[in-house]
Recover the amino acids of this structure.
């Protein structure tokens, strides 16, 4: 049973998803299912981005490859997916975080505007 709903904001997530190999897409869908059904999500799958106002990264790993999908919670039970990228370094690039923060701001502007 679902404990929360996961939606994508505009087409950023879908565009990212479409460029990924089938195995990666399958893994991403598994992580989304975890977001929907687990009351408490382990940090292995979802991690808060320190220094942001509510931004999280969904974490996907397949072999030695790593992907991240930025998301946030709206009204408690709604998870909004933003942009995604393949991670090539230890540290999440600042430009990816800034892009996600801008998308989050846009989302609230659209919602409240």
């Amino acid at each position: 049973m679902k404990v929360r709903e996961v939606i994508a904001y505009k087409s950023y997530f879908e565009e990212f998803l479409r460029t990924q190999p089938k195995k990666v897409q399958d893994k991403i869908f598994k992580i989304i299912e975890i977001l929907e059904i687990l009351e408490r999500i382990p940090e292995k799958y979802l991690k808060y981005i320190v220094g942001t106002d509510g931004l999280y990264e969904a974490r996907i790993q397949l072999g030695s490859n790593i992907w991240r999908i930025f998301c946030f919670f709206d009204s408690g039970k709604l998870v909004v997916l933003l942009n995604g990228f393949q991670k090539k370094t230890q540290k999440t690039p600042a430009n990816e975080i800034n892009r996600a923060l801008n998308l989050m701001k846009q989302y609230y502007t659209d919602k409240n505007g």
